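fold-stage: in
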Amino acid sequence: MSRQSPSRDKNGLNFQEQLFVKSYIANNGNGEEAARVAGYSGDCSKRARQLLARERVWRKIQQYARAVLSPLEVKAERSLRELTYTAFADPRQLFHTDNSLLKPSLWPEAIARAISSFEFNREGEITKIRLNSKLGALQLLGMYLGMWQGAGDSRSTDRLDELVAALRKSADDPEEEEKKVSVQ
């Protein structure tokens, strides 16, 4: 059984590498600054690339990132759910039938999550509501689902033509039951 060097931690990182890892996390992934804070001299950008290429250093950074993100439930499923809230948000859900604004505590979850900000007047009434970008969310979802593949020419499959045709058909016949476009 090999003994660990007293100058290294259980992950095999020396003191300076440990400082680099902690500084890298604290500086939001700024390797050059992390190398400088950890006490490396010379070309800190080059040193950061070298440190990040070391498996033990990168593994420790990933462990820290997981430890930070895990309690926050940062997962692909949650990100997709949040995107769908924005992509399919219906602002009409913010209002009563008499067109008066609902109190924020009564906003449906899906529409509340699609709101990026709101402003109040001096009386404490909401005067402006900003929604997240619906187009941006639809584009991201479309990319995730592979709907925007193709170059728009005959050499490749272009799902956009199929989607546009389906939208035109539904616009021409509003009484027709909503049809779903299959996504491959």
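fold-stage: in (second)
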Amino acid sequence: MPFFVTKDRKYYQAEDLDVQLVVMGGGIGLRALIGGNGEFAATGEPAVLSAHLSGARLQILFTSYYKPLLWLYSDPKIKSIAELKGKKIGVSGIGAATDTLMRDILKKRGIEGGREVAMLALGSPEARFIALKTGNVHPAVLPEGFKFVADEAGLHELVSFLNEDVFLLSGSV
């Protein structure tokens, strides 16, 4: 969204910049940047830090958000985090931000993720949403683009990570 607003208001043009948006999923944009096929990439900090620790010469210019744009959605029958004991939570990957932050939120509520609640690495937001809709997981961590889809599907928002005491830089260039 910020790209389109900036372009519509001709801010790039005022700075004599010819900017084109190229959409790439996952870590492809970051790999393209490292490979010299781009000058900037908007990506998540964990991927940038991991690449930097592996020797990639990258620099974060700015970050848009310090709170994670993530939500935990469940079947409408599940009304609280306490009801998740013995259930399966869909996350993007074990050790990924969705997993780490979810475990932290559970721990603050007295539940041990991975022991009292199973954490399932499902990959993409699409896969997590489908697993939730088909009952293969009980709640799933979903990003901002899926919040509206989940609401329209009648799913229950258990947790907004924006309201939690967690920190995750995101939307970086």
